[in-house]
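Comment thread on ticket #2218

A.B. wrote:
> Attaching the input chain for the structure job we discussed in standup.
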Amino acid sequence: MENVTIIGAACAGLTAAIYAARANLSPLVVAGTFKPGNVSVPGGQLMTTTDVENFPGFPAGIKGPELIKAMRAQAERFGARFIDNDEVVTLDGSGRSLALTLDGGDRIETKAAIVATGAVPRTIDIPSWETYWNRGVGTCAVCDGHFFRGKEVAIVGGGDSALEEAQYMAKLCPRVYLIHRRDSLRGSKIMQDHALKNPVIQPVWDSTVEEILGDGTRVTGARIKNVKTGATSELALGALFAAIGHVPATAFLKGSVALDEQGYIPVTRGTFTNVAGVFAAGDCVDHVYRQAVTAAGMGCMAAMDVERWLATQG
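C.D. wrote:
> Ran it. Output below, let me know if you need it in another format.
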């Protein structure tokens, strides 16, 4: 019987592990897997981020994977244990304790659980997306952009993530098309200014991707539709990356823990869910701020809530 099992090993989960371990709860962390369609990617979105410049304590910035590695080492130092290359596929809260089933078939009984599975990037719902996935189509230009150095590429989206990826690719490519369904961007003012002043980045306003074009083995372009006029055009591309938001990685909780219409976990009194002993933190809860530092803060809150809740259970 575990005291607390933490589902997810990114900022929220690792911070929860640090606090729970320091409280002598000997937390067990199910880190997740990298396979397609997984519940939680180990390390979360920071594993696909280059420079993190807004996390307190790093005046010169830090690489996302380095920050995650340091947080995990800190949790392990205090006694947190990790299950790697596996993920939770069901959570049963109907018994006196919680029962977690892993994808590999193992079963964990635990007094409390902290769900910190984060969110995963949205994709474009067209058949050619799957056809050319990892063949020039993706959701992380920072991860895969170096494969397309010197080619013209497109980023789909209008928020901070899309603007960040467009600026990253502008360092590698002669032309970066920024395809957005509206006539104005949604990103922060400073990010908009940087992107729109970059001569390499060319906005494609009021447009959506109708089809990804290719030769069967790799992307060669995209068919774009103007949502106001209905006119279509084609762009010659070496790659296309979508940065159009995220979906909370909570599908495994359907029927066991309350979710809102978008799949996020509603919490009360800090990080309490509607199921006794189940707590939630990070981007699977927060669809407003979605920052590494806020996820870490919620992870701290969840561990403290668990510690106090366990004390009331005797």
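A.B. wrote:
> Thanks. Noting for the ticket: Helices lie at 11-22, 64-77, 127-131, 141-144, 160-170, 189-196, 292-312.
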